[in-house]
Automatic annotation (TrEMBL):
This is Glycogen synthase. It comes from Flavobacterium xanthum. Belongs to the glycosyltransferase 1 family. Bacterial/plant glycogen synthase subfamily. The gene is glgA. PANTHER family: ALPHA AMYLASE DOMAIN-CONTAINING PROTEIN, GRANULE-BOUND STARCH SYNTHASE 1, CHLOROPLASTIC/AMYLOPLASTIC. GO terms for molecular function: alpha-1,4-glucan glucosyltransferase (ADP-glucose donor) activity; alpha-1,4-glucan glucosyltransferase (UDP-glucose donor) activity.
Length: 473
């Protein structure tokens, strides 16, 4: 089967969040399973672009209303990532350091989508299926169905995978003229809540809709930032498929970013050495349990609970625990977290920013990983932490609910129901007690390390979904 994944992010080319990890791994496993898989993404000014070799396989001009942007399609020459990678180079719009956050993001991602389809229609073979990811690629299913110049793609099934329904790529009808020509009888398909809503358009037009966990699919039927009724309507073509993780990249036995490699046979010693390294880097106490947080400091991730919860946990249990935070996002949260540094020196530290290497060391060297998310479509960090023998402390929501069962119910983690400071602190107290019972702690760690969350198992579910829509042709 020839599969195209179209996405704004792909690890290690460009990463902001979990979307990149999924698009960097799922295609590799699909390719290994005998499919011809291509990933198409914008060409940002990143380290990967500079360090790898590309050939130009196509060029043209994207017409966006009265604008005209030259573009090139660059193919990575060696298939270094385990699949064919294509970068859509539109220098004027994407030759920048960041993936998102510019005033012209609508123009950027719309041009990317148009250039991608312009290239695909010119190819000899059209793909069997096009898998779009999140709202940045949400207009593709519409353009394939309705834009005159893409008529050739009308019968190609498209699927939208929702990694995060909070972000929807809305813009006003004043930009309608950016879209390639289509029969205006279909203009209402673009509309949701008086604007063009890229994610809503994809949900309406794609042949199938998937979310990145089954529980998230249920949750967005009553909480999806305004898209609830639409998502209810399309339940018949929707499925929640739990994400996997790349067990080659995330393997404590071979991970080059660790201080000491370890496996299930020697994890106690291995984790301790990584913990010591981490504690020496961040001035923490390696004899105490280490609680970490890795991720974006946003309300959605419960980031706003961290300053308060950390202060409370550290003062109540002062000198009993360490807390380490790695992440960036909301500047108020960042400031609040940094304001605790002085008071809890020796037991608390932060790294405001993102650092992939440090993240690996934290998974290996921590005892517990905090994930108090209000919304978590899947969450990958809990799966990484399990694989590294670190016990996740999660709020029961979305993918966290699907992957972590409380140890009180014979599970592998610690769970709470509310995204509240009280619930987080109560879980920390339970964790401290568990930490003191080494036999029990290690038993749970081992079960967690043995849990199979690999894409190898999961990627077949995507293939089944593609087959289903291909058969509908
Ligand atoms: C988004 C979601 C996260 C999910 C990831 C990959 O970042 O917030 O929950 O794991 O996408 O699908």
């Amino acid at each position: 089967m020839e599969i195209f994944h179209i996405s704004a992010e792909c690890y290690p080319v460009a990463k902001v969040g979990g979307l990149a990890d999924v698009v960097g791994a799922l295609p590799k496993y699909q390719n290994n399973a005998g499919n011809a898989v291509r990933v198409v993404m914008p060409c940002y000014d990143t380290k990967f672009k500079i360090e790898n070799h590309f050939e130009c396989v196509h060029w043209g001009h994207v017409k966006l209303g009265s604008f005209n942007f030259p573009f090139n399609i660059l193919k990575e020459k060696t298939n270094a990532l385990g699949f064919e990678l294509y970068l859509v180079e539109i220098p004027e719009l994407f030759n920048r350091k960041e993936v998102y956050g510019y005033q012209d993001d609508i123009e950027r991602f719309l041009s990317f989508q148009i250039a991608t389809l312009d290239w695909i229609i010119g190819r000899e073979d059209v793909p069997d299926v096009i898998n779009c990811h999140d709202h940045h690629t949400g207009l593709i299913p519409f353009m394939m169905l309705y834009c005159n110049k893409y008529e050739k793609l009308r019968n190609i099934p498209s699927m939208i995978t929702i990694h995060n329904g909070l972000y929807q790529g809305q813009f006003g009808f004043d930009k309608l003229y950016y879209l390639p020509e289509f029969d205006l009888a279909h203009v209402n398909v673009l509309e949701w809540d008086n604007c063009i809503n890229s994610l809503a358009v994809a949900i309406k037009c794609a042949w199938a809709v998937t979310t990145v966990s089954p529980s998230y699919l249920n949750e967005i039927n009553y909480s999806a930032n305004g898209l609830e009724s639409l998502l209810n309507l399309v339940r018949y073509k929707s499925k929640g498929i739990l994400n996997g993780i790349d067990i080659e990249v995330w393997d404590p036995d071979t991970d080059r970013m660790l201080e000491k490699n370890y496996s299930i046979k020697n994890f106690e010693k291995g984790k301790q050495e990584n913990k010591e390294k981490l504690c020496s880097l961040f001035n923490l106490d390696p004899t105490k349990p280490l609680f970490s947080f890795i991720g974006r400091l946003l309300e959605e991730k419960g980031g706003d609970l961290l300053p308060h919860a950390a202060a409370l946990a550290l003062s109540e249990n002062f000198q009993q625990i360490n807390i380490l935070i790695l992440g960036s996002g909301n500047t108020t949260i960042e400031k609040q977290l940094n304001s605790l540094l002085q008071d809890y020196k020796g037991n608390y530290n932060t790294f405001i920013g993102y650092n992939e290497e440090l993240a690996h060391l934290i998974y290996a060297g921590s005892d517990f990983l905090l994930m108090p998310s209000r919304v978590e479509p899947c969450g990958l960090n809990q799966m990484y932490s399990l694989r590294y023998g670190t016990i996740p402390i999660v709020r029961r929501t979305g993918g966290l609910k699907d992957t972590v069962v409380d140890f009180g119910d014979n599970g592998i983690g610690i769970c709470h129901d509310q995204a509240s400071v009280g619930d987080v602190c109560y879980s920390i107290q339970r964790a401290i007690l568990l930490y003191e019972d080494k036999q029990h702690l290690n038993k749970i760690r081992k079960i967690g390390m043995n849990t199979d969350h690999s894409w190898e198992r999961v990627c077949q579910e995507y293939i089944e979904m593609y087959k289903l829509i291909i058969n509908k042709k």
